[in-house]
Amino acid sequence: LLEDDQVEASARVRPTGGAVERIGYGGGPGQIGVTSAFAINKDGRIAAVIGRPQQPGEVFARDGSNWRPLSAHNRELLDQVALGAVEGIAFKSAGGAEIHAVVTKPPGFQTGRRYPTVVHIHGGPVGQDGFDFDSSAQVLAGAGYLVVQPNYRGSSGRGTAFARAIYADWGNLEVKDVLAAVDYLVAAGLTDPDRLGIGGWSYGGMTTNYTIASDTRFKAAVSGASVSNMITAYGTDQYIRQYEGEVGLPWQEIDTYMKISYPFFHADRIKTPTLFLCGEKDFNVPLIHSEQMYQALRSLGVPTQLVIYPGQYHGLSKPTYIRDRWERALAWLGRYLLDDEAPTAAKTAAGG
User: Fold this and answer.
1) Residue 41 φ then ψ, to 5°
2) How far apart are CA 273 and CA 302, in angstroms?
3) Partners of 10 in the beta sheet?
4) Residue whose C-alpha is closest to residue 147's, from 161, 134, 159
5) Alpha helices of 36-171 — where are they, by DSSP H?
6) How far apart are the C-alpha atoms of 333 and 224, rounded to whole Å?
7) What is the dihedral of CA 294, 295, 299, 300, to 10 degrees?
8) Looking at residue 352, what is its pLDDT?
9) 116 CA to centre of own chain
10) Which of 111, 136, 175, 254 lies at a C-alpha separation of 20 to 30 Å from 78?
11) Residue 332: its H or E element
């Protein structure tokens, strides 16, 4: 599987070397998709799971240069729900860097209206948002939000230099790219600058913390499985080789550790009401980090909540907890961002 600027395709290369041959991106113009898995039989025939912006992953077979659908597991669901339109945008960020992002519009989108907007940030940081089906973005769009997913510097799909741009300098360029996405949408007349939300999970939660500690324009944040105090992180999670190889030893590089821990050590800069979510048994990004940020905001008088999911690890796996996570996120965002024009279901979730 080959990541390539917001899409992912099956590809092949000969063991003897040569060019990488792309087998396909899931369709022709207007039907571009993201391949998440594939299999090849002894005759060389290929089957793949392909998702498209408004179609959850289904099984396709490769016929010549085309993909033929073999399954339609989600047809009944898709007949019952309205999905938001998805499009890509490109804009300039600090230093002239070109950043790409995916925008999901609320169903029934009206040209000329400014929408409450949520920046939904992917984890990794080596990862990307693209033109597959994103249930998280659609949930937010269905609640009445314009959703933007920036592939900030540090993301994959744009080459090694782009991914390494944030090496040992976390919370700097990513924040600039997130803010540039918001500036672009405000200038385009799509986003209401007074109703901005932000959120993400893992490094997406970490970038959420960095951003609200850098800029006070966001009215609500949802930070999932995040970390802000890298000194506490050292020795308590699974990334020790990365810390020592990229950042160094804390007692030798304390200034760097403090620099990349500014959401905790400068928590007094945060004014954004923030909901923290985490799994009780998360060993990737242990619960202590969400607890520290929650306590910091409590002590500062910033509205905050902390929700801990029993028995859960870095990703929530229990369906009722996954539903609870989104109900709480929508309620938190809705409390600060929604107006009387918001969809009824979203206002209900927000207690409206």
Assistant:
1) -90, 180
2) 6
3) 24
4) 134
5) 75-78, 135-142, 160-163
6) 14
7) -30
8) 39
9) 18
10) 111
11) helix 319-337
pLDDT recorded at residue 65: 74
Q: What pTM was estimated for this model as a whole?
A: 0.91
Determine the Cα–Cα distance for residues 200 and 191; give it in Å rounded to an integer: 19
Percent of the chain's residues with pLDDT above 70: 93
Answer left, alpha or beta for residue 14, where phi above 0 means left and psi between -120 and 50 means alpha. beta
Residue with tokens 């206002």: 347
Please state whether beta strands 34-40 and 46-52 pair in parallel, antiparallel, or not at all (unpaired).
Answer: antiparallel
Active site residue: 10, 136, 202, 223, which one? 202
Q: pLDDT band at residue 111, thresholds of 50, 70 and 90?
A: very high
Closest to 87 measured CA to CA, from 66, 65, 109, 57: 109
Beta-sheet pairing, 46-52 with 55-63: antiparallel
CA atoms within 13 A on the CB side of 232: 17
pLDDT of residue 42: 87
112: Cβ–Cβ under 8 A, 6 or more apart, which residues?
189
pLDDT at 345: 43
Q: Check residues 190 and 29 and name the one with the higher pLDDT.
A: 190
Contact 121, 207 (CB under 8 A): yes
Interatomic CA distance for residues 117 and 190, integer angstroms: 9
φ/ψ of 317, rounded to 5, equals -120, -20
Question: Among the options 155, 156, 282, 290, which is catalytic?
Answer: 282
Helix, coil or strand: residue 307: strand
**With 80 as the cut, is the pLDDT of residue 187 above it?**
yes
List all residues 6 or more positions away from 185 whose beta carbon is below 8 Å from its beta carbon: 89, 103, 117, 146, 148, 191
* pLDDT value of position 36: 83
